[in-house]
Amino acid sequence: MSGSATELATLGGGCFWCLDAVYRDLRGVARVVSGYAGGHTENPSYEEVCGKRTGHAEVVQVTFDPAEIGYADLLRVFFTIHDPTTKDRQGADVGPQYRSIILTHSPEQARVAAEVMAEVTAAGIWGAPLVTEVEPLERFWSGEAEHQDYFARAPGAAIAAW
């Protein structure tokens, strides 16, 4: 890391374990925390979020150095590691907690998100309209310890997840 100020990105694209594993390996990413956001329940548990009544999505909060990797590039990665055309689902995982969502930390992030979504749409990468939600982050709730850096701690689970 170059020592410049870090920024946050909060993204949901299916199971947070999969996003966590990808973002941890990117140069310029200092930290990734799996958690919950975009809902109405205070301090939800994994079981409550999976119960589909909290309104929260499984998300990752990525701390990154913008001098090393820009927010737009984080979003370009985001749009290649999940299917942003399926509402409330990623593969076999179904429910609002698996929705495609970008939770912005500033008006600038909202602007960049719209630009990257237009870029992805224009490129015809997915062949279907994007259903990714973009909204300001109200509150991020860190997930339980067992959900942090999951695949590094349980490498056999990665095979089962795919």
Can you walk me through this structure?
The protein is of the alpha+beta class and 162 residues long. The protein contains six helices and eight strands. It has helices at 16-24, 46-50, 71-81, 107-123, 150-153, 155-161, and strands at 7-13, 29-37, 57-64, 89-90, 93-94, 100-104, 133-136, 140-142. The strands form two sheets. It has a six-stranded mixed beta sheet, with helices on one face. β6 (100-104), α4 and β7 (133-136) form a beta-alpha-beta unit. α3 crosses α4 (107-123).
What is the secondary structure topology, with strand pairs?
Blueprint: E1 7-13, H1 16-24, E2 29-37, H2 46-50, E3 57-64, H3 71-81, E4 89-90, E5 93-94, E6 100-104, H4 107-123, E7 133-136, E8 140-142, H5 150-153, H6 155-161
Parallel strand pairs: 6-7
Antiparallel strand pairs: 1-3, 1-6, 2-3, 2-8, 4-5
Helix pairs in contact: 3-4
Percent strand: 15-25%
* Strand order within the widest beta sheet: 7-6-1-3-2-8
Distance between the termini: 31 Å
Structural class: alpha+beta
Low-pLDDT stretches: 158-162
What characterizes the major β-sheet? 6 strands, mixed
Could you tell me the mean pLDDT? Answer: 89
Helix content: 25-40%
For the secondary structure, the number of strands is: 8
C-alpha Rg, in Å? 15 Å
The gross shape turns out to be globular
Secondary-structure element series: EHEHEHEEEHEEHH
Total helices: the number is 6
Salient structural properties:
162 residues; alpha+beta; six-stranded mixed β-sheet; two-stranded antiparallel ribbon; 6 helices; 8 strands; globular; disordered C terminus
